[in-house]
Amino acid sequence: MMNVMVLTGNLGGDPEVFYTNDGDPVASFSLAFRSSGKEKTGWIKVTAFKRMAEVCEKYLHKGARITVLGNLCQEKWETQNGESRTAFKLMANSIEFIKTDGRGFEDGESADDIPF
Question: 17: Cβ–Cβ under 8 A, 6 or more apart, which residues?
Answer without folding.
Answer: 25, 26, 27, 28, 53, 54, 56, 57
